[in-house]
Amino acid sequence: MPRFSRVLGTLLLAAISAPSNLLAQPWAPGQGPPPGLNLPTAAEARQLEQLRLSAEPQGLRERYLREAHALLHRFWSSHEQPKLLLPGDRAEGCGVQRVAHPMAYYCPPSQELAMGLNLRKSVRSARGKTDRELLLLDLAVLAHEWGHHVNREKGRGPFQGGMGLTVKQEELAADWRTGVFLGWMLNTGALGVDDFTQTANLMFEMGDYERLAAQHHGYPKDRFEALTRGLTSQLKVGQQLGGWRIDTAETFSRPLQLSADDLQLNRRRYEVRRFEIDRGQQIATNLIGGLLGAASCVWGNQQQCIGMAAQQGKGRADGTYTQRQLTLHCATRTFDVSDDAFDPQPAERDGKGQAAVLLDRDCPKPGSLN
Question: How far is Cα 337 from Cα 270, in angstroms, rounded to an integer?
């Protein structure tokens, strides 16, 4: 058995015997942050984004990660703040001596959180991008590793497991907490929809879990649904985010200016972001697991924990927020999405549910004088 699989097996055995008395109750979409948190202000959240956009590039990644680390500590109202380790730092727990690529993990015994993943080596689309362009991706990795820490302090939310707890549940719970934090960042205006969807496209490129085993981390749909479940706990359908509006858990839209033809043809046009999974290459590939801390030392062991990024190179499904234009024909109650293989269809046939939401919101009801 490869060393990495042995590590995950050890983590699984430890996880099954983990205490369950801290399990938290889930909360509903749009309900806001979980109770008991003393949240940072929106200004503090926006300050992190200002650092990303305006700071000098030299040493920016380290400064950004340290600020984000402190913000996550305040966001989760954590009793303890793990020590943040960066590439080259000496480590004390979980069998790691020095942090290096592709390490991204949380080690409970030593209270260490390592951010040693070189994104350019792990994500094909990240090659050629600057540190500044990759900082939001780093933030997602950091938020996931923090998720493991908070899972131990506050429970696993909707992914509680008791005696049946698995590595998959622990990872999904950390994905969910990543979504909670990113949803809060969107809600405060510290993160824009375009920034989120572009970063998500890089996130979903990572990971390759083709195992049907106890240490399986969850298939693409599992991981994405956990992330969006956290994301939408902070957001409401119909909510305005800058020029964008949330239509469903997986779609955003912003209206395009009406032209004379639009008025004459009784149609509405939108720029849309829609999450789509292309399963042409391989259905059973995990899109986001490797990036989001697959090798986290979740419950602690004495073996070296390394990132799943080392497993890159196999076939995988592609998951992206596509950039499309959606045209809504109010008279016929049909819709058409640019660059797809379908002709106009009834709005209720939109598998994403977006067309029906837009139709109900923006088109006059049948028989209406409007």
Answer: 10
The winner for highest mean pLDDT among 6-20, 243-257, 307-321 is 243-257
Q: Is residue 27 part of a domain?
A: yes
Residue 223 lies in a domain: yes
Can you say whether residue 77 is alpha, beta or left, with left for phi > 0 and alpha for psi between -120 and 50 degrees? Answer: left
3-class state of residue 244 by DSSP? strand
Q: Cβ of 254: how many Cβ atoms within 10 Å?
A: 15
Instruction: Answer yes or no: is pLDDT of 137 > 70.
Output: yes
Mean pLDDT over 21-40 rounds to: 58
Residue 193 lies in a domain: yes
- The one-letter code for the residue type at 309 is A
Residue 304 located in a structural domain: yes
User: For residue 159, is pLDDT > 80?
Assistant: yes
Total domains, the chain: 1
Tell me the CA distances in angstroms from 152 to 37, 90, 107, 170, 299, one per residue in order: 16, 24, 11, 10, 9
DSSP 8-state assignment for residue 204: T
Residue 18, CB half-sphere, CA atoms under 13 Å: how many? Answer: 29
Apex 110 CA angle, 17 and 138, nearest 5: 95
Domain residue limits at 293 = 3-237+285-318
In whole angstroms, what is the distance from residue 33 CA to residue 45 CA?
15
pLDDT of res. 204: 77
Specify the amino acid at residue 244: W
Q: Is the peptide bond before 102 cis (omega within 30 degrees of 0)?
A: yes
- As a whole number, mean pLDDT of residues 105-117 equals 95
User: Pick from 138, 206, 137, 143: which is nearest to 180 by CA?
Assistant: 143
Nearest Cα neighbor of 218 from 306, 301, 290 is 290
Lowest mean pLDDT among 107-116, 158-167, 231-240: 158-167
DSSP-based helix, strand, coil % in the chain, nearest 5? 40, 15, 45
